[in-house]
Amino acid sequence: MARRFSPWNLVDRNASLEGQLSLTDLPQLQDVALSLQELEYQIAGLKDPFGTPALSIVIKGKLQISCERCIQGMSFTVDCNSDLAIKTPVQAATRSGEHELTDDCDVLIVERDEKLDAFDLLQDEILLALPLVAAHSNIEDCGEKVVSVLAPLPALEEKAQTSDAAEQTNKPFADLANLLGKAD
Ligand SMILES: [Zn+2]
Asked: Is the pLDDT score of 44 beyond 60?
């Protein structure tokens, strides 16, 4: 799809843009996210029940972000669902005739012939959805990962014990054989 789109055109046509995002589409997110899986979006142009033009933005998927406590990756579910009312600069300046509900909504001010970058818009929404401090919600999730990194692998540990035991049982016999040989 084309990255750049006209919000007013989308509303007029009652159309929507859909697709999948990759980390290269979202340069600002590269500072926080380690990787992302299946991040899907939809930007739909519509009019709310009051006839106000709006963009409905839905982003769903999963990001790997790094936990600030244990520096391990943690999965973060993105589930954005926000409506942005759109207005021309003239409409935004004229406050008469506005109904109260739009005052509570986020408003995007766009000229009639202006095009926006879809990925920039989506990136802003994702950044807003990220936690202020990224950390495993349960501290035990951090501890478990640290322990599993430090502990030796069970297979290696078992093998080491077996070879130690074998050496210990073999040596006395070898010594005994030597002694017996010398005694004869
Ligand atoms: Zn952690």
From this structure: yes
